[in-house]
Amino acid sequence: MENCVFCKIAAGLIPSTKVYEDDKILAFKDLNPQAPIHVLVIPKMHMDSLEDITEDTSAEIAYIFENIPVIAACAGIRNGYRVVSNCGPDACQTIHHLHFHILGGGKLGEKLA
Ligand code: AMP
Ligand code: ZN
């Protein structure tokens, strides 16, 4: 996707602070952290949001979840974390490349919204 910031990060065209990378996924620090440790995990394959997941692409997403505990540990999260994916306007999705926020590194608030 030509004008997608996260595709550009995945391609190394925009710098990021990488936490984990393999051939399918990339995890990097959020520029505007909402928790003591805030990491974003993306599939390298472009998908707009959770709404784009199909039978053909669900294995990519399962792969992300298999690796979230590894990524959280790589990021230095030791005592629990929260995973969030904003999908669509009411959820305030701003970057339209599917991503999962991993929030941790300290006690989080009880409310989600
Ligand atoms: P969302 O509102 O779920 O679409 O979240 C997008 C997230 O991407 C926000 O938390 C931003 O702070 C973060 N973000 C935007 N641009 C960058 C970037 N170049 N590097 C790291 N994080 C970014
Ligand atoms: Zn993209």
Please tell me about this protein's structure.
Strand 2 (25-29) and strand 3 (37-43) form a beta hairpin. This protein is an alpha+beta fold and 113 residues long. It is built from two helices and five strands. The chain is 20% helix and 22% strand. The radius of gyration is 13 Å and the shape is globular. The structure holds adenosine monophosphate and zinc ion.
Strand order, largest beta sheet: 1-2-3-5-4
- CATH C-level category: Alpha Beta
* SS content category: alpha+beta
Tell me, what's the shape?
A: globular
Largest sheet: 5 strands, antiparallel
> Could you give the distance between the termini?
30 Å
Radius of gyration: 13 Å
Low-confidence stretches: none
Overall residue-averaged pLDDT value: 97
Q: What is the count of β-strands?
A: 5
Question: How many independent structural domains?
Answer: 1
CATH topology: HIT family, subunit A
Which kinds of small molecule does this entry bind, naming each only once? adenosine monophosphate, zinc ion
**Any idea what the CATH superfamily is called?**
HIT-like
Instruction: Give the SSE string.
Output: HEEEHEE
Tell me what portion of residues adopts beta-strand conformation: 15-25%
CATH architecture: 2-Layer Sandwich
Helix content: 10-25%
Continuous helix count? 2
Task: Name the features.
binds adenosine monophosphate, binds zinc ion, five-stranded antiparallel β-sheet, alpha+beta, 2 helices, 5 strands, 113 residues, HIT family, subunit A
